[in-house]
Amino acid sequence: MLEKRTPIQIGEAVNRVMKFKKNGSTEWVSINESFGRFLSDDLRATSDVPHFDRAPYDGFAIRSIDTSEASQSNSIMFEVVDHIGAGMLSDKELGPNQTVRIMTGAQMPVGADAVVMLELAKETSQDGKKYMSVKKVHKKGENVSYRGEDAKEGEVLVSKGAFINPGIQAMLATFGYDKVPVAKKPIVGLYATGTELLEVHEPLVPGKIRNSNSYMISAQIQRVGADVRYFGQLPDDFDTCFEAVASAIDEVDIFITTGGVSVGDFDYLPQIYEKLGAEVLFNKVAMRPGSVTTVAHLDGKLLFGLSGNPSACYVGFELFARPILRTMLSIDSPHLRKEKAVLNADFPKANPFTRFVRSSLTIEDGRLVVTPSGLDKSNIIMSLAGANSLMILPGGTRGFEHGVEVDVLLLEDQTGNQWPW
Amino acid sequence: MLEKRTPIQIGEAVNRVMKFKKNGSTEWVSINESFGRFLSDDLRATSDVPHFDRAPYDGFAIRSIDTSEASQSNSIMFEVVDHIGAGMLSDKELGPNQTVRIMTGAQMPVGADAVVMLELAKETSQDGKKYMSVKKVHKKGENVSYRGEDAKEGEVLVSKGAFINPGIQAMLATFGYDKVPVAKKPIVGLYATGTELLEVHEPLVPGKIRNSNSYMISAQIQRVGADVRYFGQLPDDFDTCFEAVASAIDEVDIFITTGGVSVGDFDYLPQIYEKLGAEVLFNKVAMRPGSVTTVAHLDGKLLFGLSGNPSACYVGFELFARPILRTMLSIDSPHLRKEKAVLNADFPKANPFTRFVRSSLTIEDGRLVVTPSGLDKSNIIMSLAGANSLMILPGGTRGFEHGVEVDVLLLEDQTGNQWPW
Lengths: 421, 421
Hints:
Two copies of one chain form a homodimer.
Chain A: H1 10-18, E1 26-30, E2 43-44, E3 59-62, E4 76-84, E5 98-102, E6 114-117, E7 122-126, E8 129-134, E9 156-158, H2 166-174, E10 179-183, E11 187-193, E12 197-198, E13 209-210, H3 213-224, E14 227-234, H4 238-248, E15 254-258, H5 269-276, E16 279-282, E17 287-288, E18 294-298, E19 301-306, H6 310-328, E20 337-343, E21 354-364, E22 367-372, H7 382-385, E23 389-393, E24 405-410
Parallel strand pairs in A: 4-5, 11-14, 11-15, 12-13, 15-19, 17-21, 20-22
Antiparallel strand pairs in A: 1-10, 2-9, 3-5, 3-6, 4-8, 7-8, 16-18, 18-19, 20-24, 21-22, 21-23, 23-24
Helix pairs in contact in A: 1-6, 3-6, 4-5
């Protein structure tokens, strides 16, 4: 007996899911553990940078006024009264024709308002005293980095939701963030269903296959930036599945099952959602693969029933679960990044449904080029290994030819997209 | 007193470093911890996939010969003798006009050689027996996935050095790799030198700045895929630095210091290398920033003396330390990936040196476009936060205009490049 399901459009499905999006929370982690996390608050300058006037080069700090008569034929001589490295302070205040030898990054001595670069300075010594002479007029401020030149205290330098990369790590350190406010990783519960599933360590037996979806989805969850709580495998038995799902939901932020959502005779997820009292947002989407993706909502939590078919499962996660998780991670472009690329294959056969084809995106002479990463049979996991993108082939009455421009979704990317694409 | 250094070309510097590249070693980790690591061995199929003949769709397994007379006007009737889901086996051997109701993924019953899809089957029942009838001739093998169709036992499916993504996780699970051979993370020792440096938690004081390079480099090391052993900060004092460096080298695979490599009066790294008996491969490179990068070699270990200037430090790491670490991670394209992009800014001023400009690489209508991510002052860390690439502006006698094509190096990328670029 085939249950009748009405497919909805992809955009409508995304909208129904995103109605239940929510913000995540903050946790403070050591700066040593913050790389690769997402800022849950704007990063503000806690001080001016630089926070004192400093020398950007090695040289001699001077009073610029003393060089006003300098020229090729009129060398001005200064007495070197001190010598400081970065991090040191001179206790000398410069008088007329006095200078302090100064290293890159050191604070300007009191009275100094310019730096003579080493290349332009001639050093001499006489009677145990050191001298420097220069033949060029220096303006006030020449070769000085002034306080606040790079950043002003209070300024927002990086926005909330940013992926913490090495540059942001440097900024966090500069501004004294030894603890960093990052988005707490949402916890994703995961069950695999299917009597045909063996554990990874089990030997193959006729009719059964090893559970690969759980490992694939776990990696997808981690790639998004969330944490996995894997509860294990469930047989195709209604009561067992119901009890397991019901008790696991409380421990997680969102819940994913793989398998059990088709209209096959052993697919119990729909009845489980019903018995739980969950509101089913949709159970069929006009797309390939992933058409049987089911999403339900229960007491503020989303339950994702992904197909047991690996590629349908993969696509269903990226389109529907990803933006929910990325939103919880403070990211305001939570959807897969969409770009245009040149199609590097022929798809002569028309298909009434929008297809998401696992693809390899490369760059040739500065242009994106997209090639399907394997036969697009829905039971082949091989093509997922080489996939860094999903090519979108809109449904319709015609095929697609080598060389046309198509949309692609980037899988290994922190940039993301807002909705609608 | 300025020490005279002779700059060498970038390519020559890379070659001198890469002469000392070495392979890393393997460690076996649980499949649950393998996401994001690098395979240290080829991934081979440990069995055929599928490893039995199976139904790719829900339907009825039949003997194709029984449909040879089927047509729109001649419906062929089968008795349904069994009903199996995925993971179940039928103990029935099909006789003439017998069929087994079969679910996606289930093993074909003995005697069956085709599957009638559900949509083409008409189900009836009579006297407590179930029947199915079909009006279409089915060929031998129709709707059957044969053993080994997707992969053959022994076949290499993914090469050594691959970044383990969700698709590869699925393959590892499929082939029973509950332990996965991954490249052991090289350990990178790290010291920051500079009397001007404060710890991140310390309040600012005149003349001093917080150490940001260590956090930046730590993140760069992690982004490459290696582990950091951070030893702390050192003052600009020869004996302290020498003792610290000498005793730390033994604990790590490569060693990085930041600062202390200029020709400033408090830059001790050159003398430290000398006292250690290390062979200096170069101490000046014809590039900006990063010209004072120094690399030395001691008893099979590379010592990287990176500039204390944040952007020079950043670039020096990516050009010289990265390929050494990526090689240890089994990756055969260990250098930064180089692509072409359209320049989205003017650089009117010629510069005799090849410049690496921190940039933001975007995609516009399928084309790479590169924009400098900030003023390219070498003491500004701000521009590093927005940088996902380094634009290469070759040294010469002319500037660069908006719209020309330039080379860019991708920083957030697992693909990499071989040498020479």
